[in-house]
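Standup notes, structure subgroup. Blocker cleared on the magnesium ion input:
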Amino acid sequence: MDDDRFRLLVQGVLDYGIFMLDTEGRVASWNAGAERIEGYAAEEIIGRHFSVFYPAEDVAAGKPVRELEIAVAEGRLEDEGWRLRKDGTRFWADVVITALYDERGELRGFGKVTRDVTERRAAEAALRESEERFRLLVQSVQDYAIFMLDTGGCIASWNAGAERIKGYAAEEIIGRHFSVFYPAEDVAAGKPVRELEIAVAEGRLEDEGWRLRKDGTRFWANVVITALYDEQGRLHGFGKVTRDMTERRNAEQALRERRRLVGHLVEAQEVERRRIAWDVHDESIQSMVAVGMRLQLLASRLPEPHASAVSGLDESVSAAIGRLRGLVSRLRPPELDRHGLVEAVSAYVEEVAGRWGLAHSVQDDLTAEPSPEAAITVYRICQEALSNVHRHARATRVAVSLSTVDNGTLVRITDDGIGTAGGDAGAGHFGLVEMHERAEAAHGWLSVRSAPGEGTAVEFWLPLLPDVPELEP
Ligand SMILES: Nc1ncnc2c1ncn2[C@@H]1O[C@H](COP(=O)(O)OP(=O)(O)OP(=O)(O)O)[C@@H](O)[C@H]1O
Ligand SMILES: [Mg+2]
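Run returned:
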């Protein structure tokens, strides 16, 4: 390229201020970029000393002159710092000064390339600030232990939550290997190292288990380890987030235990009811039937008025048998054993709603028959819900629907009554409590929805298969 074209190129560049200084540091040439960045036109600045670009304090400290000296001594000099525009405003400049020599090796002056990097600097500062804020956030989090491990598993950072949960202060623990958090048997089994290997292989690892506090006590931890990579894709270390789940675990265990107990109770109650039902059926009813037959026989042989008196006795016995049969079927609905759930519920609704003068319907959308235990639970909850409709709702109709949803049996009992007041019915009211407990003991749920004047909907769901019992660690 000849000199002219080269000169044109340099002059046209807008993004860089490119200009020459003579050996004394006076501006000897100027380009469009320099005019744009520094604000001087060529004729205003050529011949002036380049220290006009420096803030007063830098000039007082001799910085412009020193920069030329360094450029002479070392060939070039690079600097970042504040510079002044013509209007006195500052910009953050990236400056390179190069010493220029002629063929004979004599210093001819300096080339100077200046870039305005104010925006880049602002962006970097913003990034630094947001990183700083993020660091503060992480450090102050109390509920989670959040810390870093280096590639070898030694602790590299620590936060307030880690101190709270594990009991170590930052200065006690940083630099130590994270296997100190694991019980001896886990360390012996190589678990800490294996967890890091899995995190590397799969990106992350989640684990629940016992961990040690500084004082040697154990807590039940939920742990997530994430492998951290730098921009070049090299493993940089690990992020570790640990939660103390001891309380939640205790609460879950208490709940499981409660369910187990309620389950036993409900089962014992059913067994007892069945036994009483059988006893009443096999002994009381059978012998009363026999008594009835004898009375009929006797009446046919006796003269009046004795025959009528004995017939009257026979009628009383029959009425008593009818009431006992009703008791037996409430204790142990025979339809449940013989015909299945829908028939049993239908028969019950038919009987009681008819007696109470309620319009009624039973909708059957079951596609799977629930287990005998679940069927009993459904039946009992329906009984209790219907008795509530009768006693409290002042309804004109009641509807029961059964369907198979989500691998379970969903049952809805709705009335068009006054609605429940909501909240706790208080002492001496066990119906709703028992309904909830029965549903939960069967690993399902129950909810009561009601708005004043809009009736009540009791809805519950029981799984078709009881949960697989959770493994105890
Ligand atoms: N279908 C309903 N319509 C209107 N109110 C209802 C209905 N079901 C329940 N309630 C209200 O909710 C309260 C609590 O019901 P729950 O079955 O727990 O107790 P209870 O029926 O009063 O007594 P218990 O069932 O122990 O004999 C009832 O007292 C009643 O006020
Ligand atoms: Mg009740």
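Discussed briefly. Confidence is low (pLDDT under 50) at residues 469-473.
Next: hand off to the docking folks.
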